Fold this protein.
Amino acid sequence: MPVFADGRIPVSIVADEAALATSLAGGGKAALLAEGPPASLPPGIVASAGFEPAGTHPAACTCCAGRVPMAQALDALFLDRVKGRAPWFDRVVALLPSPDRRAELDVILHMDGVVSARYRPA
């Protein structure tokens, strides 16, 4: 029987601080994805990336190629991990209180080619 290993980084989505604490209780080193920069990193978080829903660049600028800010934040987390600018993490926890943002991340995890090559839903 063949065994398939998925080397992509798992991403779990939580809606509030209590769910974040529960997710982090599982152990391991995690990165945090949140709307806006976090005030402080909770215990268990070794890296973080924030994003602004409106974006800071004009639509379809050459550096972003029209990708949404959440996908850009996931790119930044991955690059910080592989380039050694952030400690190595084995998963990402996305703190997204808005149902619209949670749905957006689900679409990004499945439809954005760069993100889906690096990350998978947990």
The mean pLDDT is 88.
